[in-house]
């Protein structure tokens, strides 16, 4: 059978049995933007919404083969990376992606679950910075991830450090900050930072990082500019957080 020519977002990450985060969230998000997904699964995790019970990592060679075959089967227009589990997987994924330098890569640096289970080992974090960061169009750390990746406590210094290390753009998510608004800040080389603000949602939801990064990747796959993709992704995230707070809202509207 011929290659599927419809634009796909290739999602590289882990599954979450609860459906709260990971690949399921990614595929749902990409579909909401009218695009198809193909996947390379890096780990199978058993989680509730409060606890990560167990994690089984996929062999790194099999992850790389999934990435290669996804490219062979489909037209990959953008790539979203989430949980990578360990250094060997990061390294093999980076090797394959280096063969496709023109496809935009959005990296959500998933280091741990909100229940504090480590989802990338320490060496994996080092390799991510060395090998994957320079291949990325955008990295989307939240505040704890930004501090863990760089060791710098201030946002500006930390984001600029990631740019110096080869990132083309850094979106620092403000979800862990406080205040009336949740503000994300986009840092790119030689430009003033750009902020994206929305009213802070009063309740928490899992998988927000996965959703935002996948929505941005979907926008880039549709040839949107980075700023426009971020703006639309943030609007989409706000909408689904509203729906999660009031699940009847969609039904009431129709
Ligand atoms: N589990 C998997 C497989 C993930 O990919 C992620 C985030 O990307 C998480 C858990 C973390 O999500 P949360 O912070 O909502 O627990």
Description:
The structure is a single chain. The protein is of the alpha/beta class. The chain has nine helices and nine strands. The chain has a six-stranded mixed beta sheet. A hairpin with an 8-residue loop joins strand 7 and strand 8. Helix 1 crosses helix 7, helix 2 runs parallel beside helix 3 and helix 5 packs across helix 6 (155-164). It is globular and about 50 Å long. The model has no long low-confidence stretch (mean pLDDT 93). Residues 13-14, 16, 20-22, 45, 82-83, 108, 110, 113-114, 206-207, 209-210 line the site of pyridoxal-5'-phosphate (PLP).
What is the tally of helical segments?
9
Bound molecules: pyridoxal-5'-phosphate
Strand percentage lies at 15-25%
Largest sheet: 6 strands, mixed
Helix content: 40-55%
Name the poorly predicted regions. none
H/E topology pattern: EHEEHEHEHEHHEEEHHH
Tell the overall outline.
globular
| Rg estimate, integer Å | 17 Å
Structural class: alpha/beta
| Strand tally | 9
Mean pLDDT: 93
Largest sheet strand order: 3-2-1-4-5-6
Distance between the termini: 40 Å
